[in-house]
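User: Now give one protein:

AI:
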Amino acid sequence: MELNIKGKVAVVTASSKGLGRAAAEALAAEGVNLAICSRDKDRIQETADDLQAKYNVDVLLDVCDVTDKSSIESFKNKVIDHFKTCHILFTNAGGPPPGKVEDFKGEDFKQALDLNLLSTINLVYAFLPFMKNQRWGRILASTSITVKQPIPTLALSNVSRVGVVAFIKSLALEMAPFNVTANTLAPGYIMTERVDDLLKNQAKTENISYEDALERLIQKIPVKTIGKPEDFGALAAFLASEQAAYITGETILIDGGLYNGLM
């Protein structure tokens, strides 16, 4: 399928690894020019070099802490100075630490909200005016299956990510007349460093082997496998496309059938 986004400009945050890297690569494969960022200078440089070499697209990189509003503003200024606009925004940040409610204090939840919710809000405010002005935009917010089905050992994620869904839904309603769509991607278990760390933590907590922790997880997933980053990237690229113009305000699961609810 031709996605008709070649030559567009996409901003992809936390893109040196994991789901952000997967989204950036899928967009680059479609000929989209990229502005990517991470807190890790060496890894984001490596990612930029790799994507430029493989896909021959223009890649702007920056070191940016998405929990810092001034850092987002600096990143935005560099993007606009270089590309003059932004067509696609993929908001993403690392997940907060695992644990149950009683493992944390109020300050921990505040930090999680800064990481997942406020970073999304501030990134949207930074780039939305350019989408409205050109009457074309795609906003994609990466969250988690926890927005639909809370996971007991991910209390911070359960709380901090659900607000993103409410924000994106509200945004979608307001931006529809401007041909700007806004959707939430809710992955289940995709084999990234984050999931690898969660499995290691589970193995340590339950005093079992990593292999046993992995097998337990696989058995919970109806398709009996953990998703690949490429699976997630393909969904992000489609939602950023012209063909997805009639999809907005949605929370789209990519979880191998793990979610048990109807809605």
Notes: The chain has two domains: 9-188+229-253, 191-226. The longest strand covers residues 180-187. The helical segments are 18-29, 41-55, 69-83, 106-134, 155-175, 193-206, 210-220, 229-239.
